């Protein structure tokens, strides 16, 4: 029979390494809370929420009347030409409409000086608006603090 001797330093280092190995994947996968404000009768908003949750975001949903949503958009710096069916807040940014989760992740990684992102209207094939395999071309816009916009990402038609 073999005697195995472990000193205190080896034991503590092993325990620390094990704890770190278990914690790192959880920290890497964690995404910030996304607060979504939407019409209670909108099904496409629910589909977008599911897609965001599947991408690892924690979702908090608030149903709101049309006038409240319109006011929230205006107060948040979303002009009428950038508006869509739902508005979300995440980590200091506004996400307007059917913005893909990868663009939200990129925004949070790059941290530009901006209001947030918008997919104006409800383009077919954007997340929550039908299959990506049939999508129409659409752009995700970065809304700057001064109200100007620029294309953040463009998606070609499928």
TrEMBL record:
UniProt cross-references to PROSITE patterns, sorted A to Z: TAT
Superkingdom of source: Bacteria
Keywords for this protein: Signal
Pfam assignment, any one: DUF411
Annotated signal peptide: 1-28
Name of the protein described by the UniProt record: DUF411 domain-containing protein
């Amino acid at each position: 029979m073999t005697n195995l001797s472990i000193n205190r330093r080896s034991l503590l280092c092993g325990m620390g390494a094990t704890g770190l190995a278990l914690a790192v994947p959880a920290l890497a996968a964690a995404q910030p809370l996304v607060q979504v404000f939407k019409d209670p009768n909108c099904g496409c908003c629910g589909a977008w929420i599911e897609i965001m949750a599947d991408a690892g975001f924690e979702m908090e949903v608030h149903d709101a009347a049309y006038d409240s949503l319109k006011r929230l958009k205006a107060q948040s710096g979303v002009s009428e030409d950038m508006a869509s069916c739902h508005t979300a807040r995440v980590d200091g940014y506004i996400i307007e409409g059917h913005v893909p989760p990868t663009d939200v992740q990129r925004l949070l990684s790059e941290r530009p000086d901006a209001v947030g992102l918008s997919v104006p209207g409800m383009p077919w094939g954007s997340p929550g608006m039908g299959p990506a395999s049939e999508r129409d071309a659409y752009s995700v816009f970065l809304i700057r603090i001064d109200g100007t916009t620029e294309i953040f990402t463009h998606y070609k038609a499928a």
